[in-house]
Amino acid sequence: MNAPWQRLLTFAVSGLQQPIPQDPISECSSHDYAELRRRASDLFALADEKLHTFPFKDVKPCWFRLYTDASIALALDIIDRIVDSESSDPGLEYIDEIVSTLDMALIMAGGVGREDLIGRMLENVNSALQQDEPEVSPLAKRPRLVQGKHSSKAPRQVLSTDQISVPTLSHPISRCKTPSLALFEKHMNEQRQPLILEGTMEHWPALQRWKLIPYWLHQTIQGRRLVPIEIGRSYTDDDWGQKIVPFKKFLDDFILPKPEDSDQSSQDRQTGYLAQHNLLQQIPSLRNDIAIPDYCYLDAPGPEPGTPVALSKARQSGEKDKHDHPTSDTADNSTSKDTDVEDLGSDIQMNIWFGPAWTISPLHHDPYHNILCQVVGKKYLRLYAPQHSKSLFPRPKDEPAPHISQKEFSNKFNGTDTAAETIDMSNTSEIDVAAMETSPHEDWDEVYPGISQVPYVECILEAGQALYIPVGWWHYVRSCSVGISVSFWW
């Protein structure tokens, strides 16, 4: 009855015993496989202490390796208990513990050196669970919908498409249907303007699959996979924070409507957002649902001379050993707004943004070109050219972020630098565009002198559409519904 778990155990043991060439783990621990299994708890505690004691950039690679291998060893201990038990039911608490242990290795340490092993272990856990619980069918036939509504007794099968506060556009962004590579490259180099791309996502399976709640539950082992989420309206707010929670809790608490929600406005409810996270790497099967736009493989032009990104890059051109990753989302709430610029020709970086209506990214700019692909729902975006930066009230470079204590925690799973006591927020504007949206008849020139004279462009980005955002363009983003987006930085 425990055959699937025995197969998982055999596979995982073999994988963990496989040596890694020039493994840095030897710098921190001289243990062999037998000692790792015997002292898994102690070795994990040691590695965990190191990850939480030093700034991220100062943690030796060996501690990430030890954290990863010790986590796998702890998971093997649990699988051992399942295999040795006489019951055919492994116990859901065992499953939860295995998944959370392995996911924390991915989130906290990147699963370094064992990414494929952890991914396959989690796939096998999902398969074993399906065999133990055959009644759980993630892609089961959906109950018939009546006039577009789901039965009050049946679980919701499709993400809500209810729209909130969709504005009328005054300065719409230009759009183009499936431009050729040559045409898009010319636009990047000559027009250097935002552009809505239509028809570039028509072949994405995600357009259909990601609307289905059972699909997400299946991909996340019935919602057990852990995800880092942001709590709060905006990363510029004092009460902004972060948590790591099971996907099902994120879904239930923030995405799926509840009866009591009807008594609160969308702006009054607490917002939870799965943002600025490479979920496609954490759950590789989701990667099959999307495709990197061909445009991202083009050589992108550098930032325009004299703009903040260009000046920042010039200041840093002499620095070496820069290993920061982009830390602001170009679609939604951000876990960090660091203006540090690494090589603009680095690999394409993908992130997913999944949240309810009224998730907000305050007005900010990023040091990369980006194609933002809307998969589910709608978003409103307002963009300002980098030449108007001085008129957009950028925050002082040395201004402490309101959420500095939360930021230090966030960096632990985003791979960013925690050494500084303040965060460079100069690529974030002091302008509260959300307030300007909700109170359009106020005289905002009294609050932000001259803001009414600064030109901008805007759009409603709908499912199946992509938006090209040139490097350095200031942008504000607000979700008009439950939404899922994928951004591609290059």
From TrEMBL:
Chain segments carrying region Disordered: 306-342
Pfam short name (any one): Cupin_8
Domain JmjC: 323-490
Protein's recorded name: JmjC domain-containing protein
PANTHER family attached to this UniProt entry: HYPOXIA-INDUCIBLE FACTOR 1 ALPHA INHIBITOR-RELATED, TRNA WYBUTOSINE-SYNTHESIZING PROTEIN 4
Comp. bias regions, Basic and acidic residues: 316-327
Tree of life domain: Eukaryota
